[in-house]
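Technical note accompanying the year-one report. For the benefit of new consortium partners, we illustrate the data format agreed upon in the data management plan: each record pairs a sequence with a structure-token string. No post-processing was applied to the example shown here.
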Amino acid sequence: MVKLHVRDIMTTQVVTLKGTDTIKHATVLFALHTISGAPVVDDDRHLIGIVSETDILELILKSQDKLSIDHPAAYMLMSPMDETGDDKDVKEAGDAISQMLVKDIMTRTVLTTTPDAMIVDVVEGMIAKNVNRVPVVEKGILVGIISRGDIIFSIYKKKR
């Protein structure tokens, strides 16, 4: 029986972000690449964090909660953030979120793995930590990423 290692199924062409990228840039990148999160790296590809759609949505909801206190009729999720609306407070909050930096909301303590790790160990970590993707690092450098989808796909990849 073949034992799968991370290197056997990891994605090596990783979409990454920099800490200085804006939330708007991250959101557009997620949409363009049909992903729900990305590792955040420095100029030398050292992993410094990870950001996900959940992080962005939590940020929007926090802003929504703040707006609702003084402005109960303001709902940030009622229209696209890049549309000019009539409500000045909502527009300002949307602009503030769009221009916020990834480093301000990213998760800094990240579950990582190595290319030689066993898939079963990664799955156990993903479930225990409730994460959807795990960056793959080698000597401190990001070399890939493995997602729940990659693992699920690999289960049936060679079966007919």
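Partners are asked to follow this layout when depositing records. The chain has a mean pLDDT of 87.
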